[in-house]
Structure formats: structure tokens, C-alpha cells
């Protein structure tokens, strides 16, 4: 902890600047519960599960949220407009150190009557306000990124069978039961992400990887982007899906994938689906604060910007 004193002091100043950035734009800071009754359905995330008791001894299954997204969207559906949150999030089965910690700080914000291009501008302005990095970001379509670093036209590989063949051509050994996303990331994580030196906003992910984003005018791609700084993923953003029927269908598919992967399976949060049905046009983003501080300070390990990382708590 003593060795991290300078980094933790700088971290505190960065957090202050983050809040000032949003206050100056009249965003409302909101607090969401860390304890929830149902987690999200993301196939590759593992929520922390525990039992909680009320004063009469009645026991409930509970989870520490993996992000405040569901709650914040419920707030947007109830009439809140531009909002942000800086909160602790929790994920089980994460690495201890490197760029991961099971307890981490998330900055999440939403703009009403906006799309993901406006969130891109927010990202560039925010980095400029906290780290003097204005005009350093390169915005690039995922298709162009694959052409540049993998030498292929992604338009030709938007189906699972074709992506499977491409993985074989590139020397990987995928199994037949891998999802499109698994296959996509075999190439992306090994051939593309390590080459993302500098500041990148990578936008328009394949529709199969839309998550909670709406599809673009070219429905083969979703209005989703991620922020990379020197090969480290910092943030994930969407033009938010506002079609409850489509949202429910995606959650059902994610639940099936969790079951296929042998992960714990949870009920769908129907209150969230109902909220999506009345969600205004909006866009939002989740940004990892610890990773942001890490890259701003040039630290190789996330442990260097935390008071007591898991690697120290559980050593």
C-alpha cells in the first residue's frame, strides 16, 4: 500500500476530474444497489452469488452486480435523462492482477436522445479532460480493422461456418460447438488486439455480437463500440436497444449459451425487459476506471492503482 501512495493520490485526482466532467454538462450522478436479486445474462461473466437474510430469518439468493446497467436503464425508462454512476462492480472467476480484479470501479453514463457517435465524442472529450490526450483517438470500423490487421474483409465472415473456416485457415483449431463470438475472438485477440498500439475507438461490431445494442442501418453490424488504449480494452458502448421483444429474444439466446457453456443459469429480469419497452432513444457506455487510471499512469499491473487488490487480500 505504501508503494502505491503516489498512484493512489493521482487516482483520487482523476476521479475528481471524472465527476467534474459530468457535472459541468449537467449530468446527474446516481447510486445503484450493489446487491441484486437477478444478475445479467452475459455468457462469459460470472456474478458473485451469496445468501442474505432479513430480520425474520427469511433467506434470499442474492448477487453482487457485475455492472449497474440494468438499474440505470430502469431509471431512464422511469424518466431520468443524462445520468452517470461511479460504483464498485464484482465478477467471480477473474484473474488476480494484470488488467483484472474481482472487485473493480466502473464509470457508466447514458445520454438520452443520443446515439453512440455522441458517446464517442464524450470519450474523446473525457480523455482530454483527465489526461491531455485530445485528438489522439483513431475511430475505425471493425471491418476496416480486420482488413488492416488480419488481411480479410469481415463482410465475408459474418456467418459462423465461414468464420470457422477462417479460423482453420489462420492456423487455429476451433471446435465445432464454438459460437460465432468464440471464433471471432480467436482471431481478434491473437491477431488484432495486440497491434492496437495507441488510442482506438473500434465501432460497428457484427450483429451476432450486438449484446444490448441496436442494429445499424447496415443490419449486419450493431451500433456498438469499444475503446482500446495500447491494446487494453477500456470501455464498451452501445446505441441502446429499445425493442423489448428483440431484447427478450437476445436474453433467451444468451441464457441458452450459458447453459451450453456449463455456466450457472439465471431467470431473466422481466422488469428490465419491461423497462426496455419504454426506454427512450439513448446511448450509453461502461468504462473501467481502474484500467483508465492504469493506462494514464503507465502502470503494467492493475494492482498498482488499487488500495488492496485481491492478490494481496487473498495471498
Structural class: alpha+beta
CATH superfamily grouping: Bira Bifunctional Protein, Domain 2
**How far is the N terminus from the C terminus?**
14 Å
As residue ranges, the low-confidence spans are none
Tell me the number of structural domains: 1
Order of helices and strands: HEEEEHEEHEHHHEEEHHEHH
What CATH first level would be assigned? Alpha Beta
Proportion of residues in extended strands: 15-25%
CATH topology type: BirA Bifunctional Protein, domain 2
Q: On the 0-100 scale, what is the average pLDDT? A: 96
CATH architecture: 2-Layer Sandwich
Tally the helices: 10
Percent helix: 25-40%
Quick recap:
With 315 residues, the chain is α+β, with helices and mostly antiparallel strands. It contains ten helices and eleven strands. The strands form two sheets. It has an eight-stranded mixed β-sheet with strand order 1-5-6-11-10-9-8-7, with helices on both faces. The protein has a three-stranded antiparallel β-sheet with strand order 2-4-3, with no helix packed on it.
Amino acid at each position: 500500500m505504501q508503494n502505491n501512495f503516489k498512484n493512489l493520490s493521482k487516482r483520487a485526482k482523476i476521479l475528481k476530474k471524472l465527476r467534474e466532467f459530468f457535472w459541468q454538462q449537467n449530468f446527474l450522478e446516481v447510486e445503484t444497489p450493489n446487491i441484486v436479486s437477478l444478475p445479467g445474462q452475459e455468457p462469459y461473466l460470472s456474478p458473485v452469488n451469496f445468501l442474505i437474510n432479513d430480520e425474520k430469518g427469511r433467506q434470499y439468493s442474492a448477487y453482487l452486480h457485475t455492472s449497474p446497467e440494468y438499474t440505470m436503464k430502469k431509471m431512464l425508462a422511469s424518466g431520468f435523462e443524462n445520468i452517470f454512476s461511479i460504483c464498485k462492480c464484482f465478477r467471480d472467476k477473474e484473474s488476480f492482477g494484470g488488467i483484472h480484479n474481482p472487485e473493480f470501479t466502473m464509470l457508466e453514463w447514458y445520454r438520452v436522445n443520443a446515439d453512440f457517435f455522441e458517446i464517442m465524442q464524450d470519450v474523446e472529450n473525457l480523455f482530454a479532460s483527465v489526461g491531455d490526450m485530445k485528438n489522439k483517438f483513431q475511430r475505425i470500423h471493425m471491418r476496416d480493422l480486420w482488413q488492416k490487421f488480419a488481411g480479410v474483409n469481415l463482410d465475408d465472415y459474418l456467418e459462423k461456418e465461414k468464420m470457422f473456416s477462417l479460423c482453420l485457415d489462420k492456423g487455429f483449431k476451433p471446435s465445432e460447438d464454438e459460437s460465432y463470438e468464440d471464433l471471432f475472438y480467436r482471431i481478434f485477440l491473437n491477431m488484432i488486439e495486440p497491434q492496437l498500439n495507441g488510442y482506438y475507438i473500434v465501432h460497428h461490431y457484427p450483429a451476432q455480437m450486438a449484446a444490448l445494442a441496436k442494429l445499424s442501418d447496415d443490419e449486419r453490424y450493431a451500433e456498438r463500440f469499444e475503446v482500446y488504449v495500447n491494446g487494453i480494452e477500456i470501455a464498451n458502448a452501445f446505441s441502446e436497444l429499445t425493442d423489448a421483444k428483440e431484447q427478450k429474444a437476445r436474453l433467451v439466446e444468451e441464457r441458452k449459451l450459458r447453459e451450453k457453456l456449463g455456466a450457472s443459469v439465471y431467470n431473466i429480469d422481466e422488469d428490465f425487459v419491461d423497462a426496455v419497452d419504454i426506454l427512450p432513444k439513448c446511448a450509453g457506455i461502461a468504462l473501467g476506471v481502474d484500467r483508465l487510471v492504469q493506462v494514464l499512469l503507465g502502470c503494467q499491473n492493475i494492482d498498482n492503482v488499487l488500495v488492496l487488490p485481491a492478490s494481496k487480500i487473498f495471498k
